[in-house]
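Notebook B, p. 112. Complex prediction, attempt 2.
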Amino acid sequence: MTLFLLPSILLVISAVHAFQFEELAHYVDSHQEEYVEALRDWVAVESDSSDVLKRPELHRMMEMTAQKLRSMGGNVQLVDIGVQELPDGQTLALPKVVTGQFGSDPNKNTVCVYGHVDVQPAKIEDGWATEPYNLTDINGNLYGRGASDNKAPVLAWMHAVEAYQALNMELPVNVKFVVEGMEETGSNGLDAMILAQRDTFFSDVDFIIISDCGWLSRRPALTYGTRGNCYFFAEVEGPKQDLHSGVYGGTVIEPMTDLIGILDTLISPSGKILVPGIREAVAPLSDEEWRMYQDIEFDINDYKSKIGVNQLMYTNKVDLLAHRWRYPTVTIHGIEGAFSAPGSKTVIPAKVIAKFSIRQVPDMEPAVVKKQVTDYLHSVFAKRKSPNTLKVTMIIGAKPWLADTKHALYEAGRTAIKKVFDMEADLIREGGTIPIARTFQDVTGKSIIMLPIGGFDDGLHSQNEKMSRYNYIEGTKLFITYLNEVAQIKKSV
Amino acid sequence: MTLFLLPSILLVISAVHAFQFEELAHYVDSHQEEYVEALRDWVAVESDSSDVLKRPELHRMMEMTAQKLRSMGGNVQLVDIGVQELPDGQTLALPKVVTGQFGSDPNKNTVCVYGHVDVQPAKIEDGWATEPYNLTDINGNLYGRGASDNKAPVLAWMHAVEAYQALNMELPVNVKFVVEGMEETGSNGLDAMILAQRDTFFSDVDFIIISDCGWLSRRPALTYGTRGNCYFFAEVEGPKQDLHSGVYGGTVIEPMTDLIGILDTLISPSGKILVPGIREAVAPLSDEEWRMYQDIEFDINDYKSKIGVNQLMYTNKVDLLAHRWRYPTVTIHGIEGAFSAPGSKTVIPAKVIAKFSIRQVPDMEPAVVKKQVTDYLHSVFAKRKSPNTLKVTMIIGAKPWLADTKHALYEAGRTAIKKVFDMEADLIREGGTIPIARTFQDVTGKSIIMLPIGGFDDGLHSQNEKMSRYNYIEGTKLFITYLNEVAQIKKSV
């Protein structure tokens, strides 16, 4: 009996454990319509974290996220992270952070998947071909705000876990989720939450996985660095209210003239940052980096035609990649308070607020950048001898992040990409900011990998953002495989 | 019988003719609630001529204007003035021009009152204390978009005619009306209409009266000049769509940087226009002007506190008035296409359109200004060696206007103001633009007067525009009196 019984038990255990890629991949393929529908439901929520009027939608989005994890049998918490102070002094409840846990086997590695379900603003008038909050499938591309950044990747991770569950295969690692709703405006409140739960929720986490980024080309990629972001408001205030430009023009120093004047001192025509001290703080490009950049698959003409420009700032691959990833840049996003509608209006705006940001790289420090920019703008403004007032505020100060590409997490990534896509992974950096990577690193001390599934042409933060069905579905398979690869990493004690 | 009959007839005729100010003034006072209600109905129409989406409201406003004149028994026409070409090449019907006529006695002078019933844009989010399209009476001030500019003055003229009618007093002059709906965006189509009707509708007009302006202080005023306006769009276009500033920043020359760069070359910090040739074209200030300006009632501290600034561009009355009225000025109104909402957005706008205007004075010419500005901006832009494209368009080119203050029309104005307000009139100019004054002068050759009833603090084009009940009602009495004064001017043959 015993002899017969033991193999039978072993067989059952073996069946639960075994990673059977073909079976999981088939499951994913045959459930892709459900996955698209789930994405449609999520995209339909206008979870724009920058618009305080959309806050109820954002709260609803967090609840939907929690509900999804609960329905999968996870141990789910909605963590209160407090309130946000608005410029006018009022406070507003921050969206709760959703945490979830699947499995707690101390013999397995534990990964923590981070994602966000808030989105950038989007209006059809901005030039969208489809309703931004109505997921629209055109030739295999799923168009909608937040589709790629970051709702589909978050769902793909959940579907990866679900696939194991549905096929009664044991998860090869314990999987935790941390999903936030303030990423697009600087992850307000998340740092404190991570710090507070460092010795509880995060104590048994071995690795952190972030899929809030995209490939560089059609070749799948692993991301090992991101730029930070210092986002500034420069407000010039003059008259107590807007004035008629005919009636008053010529007698008042106009705030808009002052603002344009100081903004024009930020950047040279060729794109150089003119704020003293910024460029000096940048770590020099090493020979090794130079060689890595040379090996990366990157077609400049593709890049140009995707963006729709005839000429870029630099003409060679290494310079271009370096200035996307590891050099700072200034962008002036726009001006609040001035006339911005179509048509004409003969107004002297009384208070104008420029929004600009500086992408930040090692070895820049947000606190230093804040002082450099504030001092510089005030000194430039003082030279104008304007009766108006200038106020400079840094509303986001997110640090850059850089990982060790030799870590086993990256080896696991290369192997998983090879298995699913039969291609070598590109090792890339990200010009954008995922501030939380740096926080995870600083607070938890855990190793982090960025494992993107977004396409190179997904239009993040832009009109017509999309996620391709291919990347969404194959990406789900990549996540499934990656969990199995990470299980092979020797557990640190 | 004959003896008895004649005096009786004469008495009747006399009763019809006689100008009885007290009776008319009493009639106006006792009907002021009706006048306010009429203004409320008109303000409720969002007749914003700059917003193509509001065009149906504008058409409705013209129809209401015509209906009002019809109800008074006028001979009314709605004149089709064709279509407007939009930047995208589409066409849109222009609001019809309303003409009306009361009386056609060849022995009387004929005045033509010009006004407009379109308005500037207004949204409560711009900082209005009340709903802009809901007329709100606060302490005798009637707040609402278009209340002062120009709906109340147009209604006041109609009520002036109505008062004569209601009291069965014959109108001392023939009164014609020309009311348009495109004034705020440059009176598109009106020039051609005036030219076309020069020998018909305008052939028997002796004088043109415009009340589309305001007083300078609490002292009633007559206006003898206006500045023109050259309104420009400067569009810089780069990438084919908005880009994520993290992902792409550092590799593309951003249109916003270029636009800020060229805008900053328009004006010096102290407000000097830097476009070559503009300042050189300005007629020098004469000694006589200087003396006139010195005599005008104008309190600099009042002006400063009304605007809410500590320091103006100039510290003495003459310089200030001269720079309001007879020197050009540049205002940058805003930028379309950039991020303009509250909050933050990390976007590189792909196409940005700056809106700025140059208030124009004798002896500047719009066609010359257009070339000066376009050439200058293109030369400045060329120095940047940007791959982006610049397009400069002058969408409004309205000429300045200057009248002879020694004309009998102004004498009549002084007398009427003395009768109604028991004050001497200020002779002032207007920094704003009433383009049609110049067209009337050039096309019809008729003399023109501007007879304002708007208050000095009405907030035209600004938040919280208002018309005081006092100015509205006393202004109606002024118009009534002015018609009688104009009747005394010897009719030209």
